[in-house]
Design a protein that fits this description.
Elements lengths: L2 E12 L25 H4 L10 H13 L3 E2 L2 E2 L2 E4 L9 E4 L6 E10 L2 E14 L3 E5 L2 E5 L6 E7 L6 H17 L12 E11 L10 E6 L2 H20 L7 E5 L6 E6 L9 E2 L6 E2 L2 H9 L5 H10 L4 H9 L1 H14 L5 H18 L11 H12 L5 H14 L6 H9 L7 H14 L1 H7 L6 H11 L6 H12 L2
Parallel strand pairs: 12-13
Antiparallel strand pairs: 1-10, 1-11, 2-6, 3-16, 4-5, 4-15, 6-7, 7-10, 8-9, 11-12, 13-14
Helix pairs in contact: 3-4, 6-7, 7-8, 8-9, 8-10, 9-11, 10-11, 13-15, 15-16
Amino acid sequence: MKYQPVVGLEIHLQVKVKTKMFSRVSSEYFGEPPNTHIDPVSFGLPGALPVPNKEAIKKAVRLAIALNCQINKRIHFDRKNYFYPDLPKGYQISQFDEPIGRDGYVEIEIGDDSRRIRITRLHVEEDTGKSMHSGDESLIDYNKSGVALIEMVTEPDFESVEEVLAFAKRLRQIVRYTDTSDAEMQKGQMRFELNISVKKSGTKELPNYKVEVKNIGSISVLEKVMNFELNRQSELLGKGEEIKNQTRGLKDMTGATLFQRSKESSDDYRYFPEPDIPPIHFSEEYIQEIKKDMPELPNERIKRYLDLGLELEQADNFVEDKARGDYFDLVLESAKDESMAKEFSKWINTDLTGILIKNNKDYSDVQIDPFDLVYLIQMAKDKKITATIAKSVIEEIIKMNKSEKGIAEEIIKTKGLVQIQDESEIDKFIDEVIAENSKVIEDIAKNPNAIKFLVGQVMRKSKGRVNPQVAEEKLSQKLNT
């Protein structure tokens, strides 16, 4: 019997702010010595009062708007009570019945189709500490305890692994575009909790159980966990066994999971209003101000690029790598000619990206002025320089590690790299190559591709200043091939 997954996600996101959610301690703890970013508020010591981080709340509202959520104009904080060593207070300040946003959605593309994944709620809370286990010993680092966290919960709308991956990638893009978080998963800034069950294919009735897998720290591991759980649960149901609500943890990076405990319900947490923080009210003016300041979002950006004539893969590259997309936009702005968008895209996505990777750089510090890139591409298009020369000039500028408008033209003029247009000068190189390569010329009758060698020799003699297409045409005419 075939089974299909029914999946919902919980996403935890560390907010990009300087201080923790309820205190003035620095939230930039990554790589710092353990237990050096702590204070009385994190530990809930007597007399230590929490004060909400205004910027974290503003960023949460902005993300909720980007996710098409309705904004609750009155919110309050709650205490979520449970005991665990990495929670020093014995409770977590979170939100329960009045979150910041609710009833939103994210649009994802699957093949040629698109669909909406519903967002149930979005709220802010404080992060917990970090437990580290080695043999029989357990250690706790409280540096991230109290760091501002956004939690998002989806409806169980996913019906395939492909949909979950598309959602995870699109959500990460939105988070980065709105500057909510850097969402660097290797630093724990974006984590997933998977709620997965399976049902018989073709049935509409939802399963009567739910398996939760916590602390998934990468999209590739998320995929592996889904495949593991789909196979594990399908096998159990196929044998007629019952699956109960449970929480499971990762065994390793292969995606295998292990039973941890029976799953809690919200009643187990004994939520009650946080007595030290009064309710917060958002005015309509406050919400409108945030909406006015919203950046272009990934869906809007990809549509704009497709309208310029870019292929979907090209557009995806610019949307996924925001810095690359920003540079592409600067090139378009510098050129003032959108008809060449596809040509610019090809150069940036292939040649420039390759040169940057070769020189251990990326688009956050690309060292070539957009004006110069446009100049070089236009020169190559007009056959005034070869594409090879254009690439070599790009690499030279990047190695110089400085970006000065007009430097590309200066290099070409100083080195005399403009393509030779004088027919007699080209003929001179052709004649020299023919005279020096009689053996190759004999081979052309048997192997027509041997003419490519002669073209290369013309390019070498001319230092790349003869158009290779012109060289091949002239060689063919002189050799009657």
